[in-house]
Amino acid sequence: MNGQLDWADATAYFGNDLEVHRRHLADAGMATHGLLACRFLKGDSSRMMSGDGDHAEQKLIHSKLWTEELARALANWDPRSSPMLILVALNRSPCGDCAHLLASALQRFNNDYSLTTERQHFVLASLGYYHSAKATQHSTRGLPQTFTTDKGMRALKEAGWKLCTLTFDAKTTRRGKELSRYLQKMQKHG
Asked: Could you read off the pLDDT of 70-113 as tens digits, one per residue?
């Protein structure tokens, strides 16, 4: 993966059914879009969420797909089989608040399935660095909701998320280049 995940690699691994979500994830517009994909889920192996006022990653981790179906897949998964790869793809990096929500959600899975975490790979691929033109807004927890924070990205990494930039046709957006440089520095300096 090397700090980047190209959409073609995601569709090669998870299947061409992901292609219908391309247009949402390739555009860092006003709405947040998020995709959760895992081949070990029963039925659909992916689900797309759009923000519509909330951030898509909040909707993803509160959805039945995350709380029930993914939890069931992790509980039923045999770690002696192939590793489990869970992809969350976003059209922009998580804000400070969402980063902490995603980190906490993964920490709960790590606690519940601690014996198998070495073969579970949670990948968070973002199209680019998020910084809204809106005035700074904070969640009820006091965390910023209008931009990505260093503290939030470090919390994701510490929780076990594999962070990378999402590219399309091997092209990186301007904000994707910013995110990529940041992730390289974070990798180098811990």
From this structure: 999 998 888 788 888 999 999 999 988 889 999 999 999 999 98
Radius of gyration of the chain (CA): 15
**pTM value?**
0.89
- What's the pLDDT tens digit per position in 32-53? 899 999 988 876 667 777 766 6
Distance between first and last Cα of the chain:
18
Place of tokens 């300096």: 189
Output phi, psi for 103, to 5 deg: -65, -45
Residues linked to residue 88 through DSSP beta bridges, in sequence order = 36, 124
